[in-house]
Amino acid sequence: MKNLFITLALAAATFVGANAQFFVGGNVGFALQSENTGGTFSIPGTNLTNTGDFTDWSLFVNPRVGYSLDEKMSVGAYISLGYEQAKLDNPAPIGEVKAGAFTWGVAPFFRYNVVSFGKFGIAAEAKLGVGGAVYNIKDVDAKPTELNFGIGV
Length: 153
Known about the structure:
Layout lengths: L1 H17 L3 E15 L4 E2 L6 E2 L2 E16 L4 E16 L2 E2 L4 E21 L2 E18 L7 E8 L1
Antiparallel strand pairs: 1-4, 2-3, 3-6, 4-5, 5-7, 7-8, 8-9
């Protein structure tokens, strides 16, 4: 399986390098957050409400691939994959709760290059996406999920 993945990655890199009309990009990120909320917020799909401290970390990968139709227009798609884990220190009614969430998303896009300055430029981009999340909350029977739709300009 690992050899198959490496072979496909090399083939894709060779194909993209052979034809400059294709482009790839994206980002990878990690976030860490810890705070005393002081207020309350609810956990989706459950009857749990946090009233104390919480810590949260997340990791995401957002690759993008596209095709240049001409010097001004491009089309392509984003893919978003992520994982988030949170610890709620004082949620009612059961005490400390640990929750994880797998997030995903797909968004095709259209980009129009408005102005070019050599290798740099200003572009307008429109996208239409769908995504969601699947939560896993330790010691809680609920397995809430989300489904989201969005339009971006």
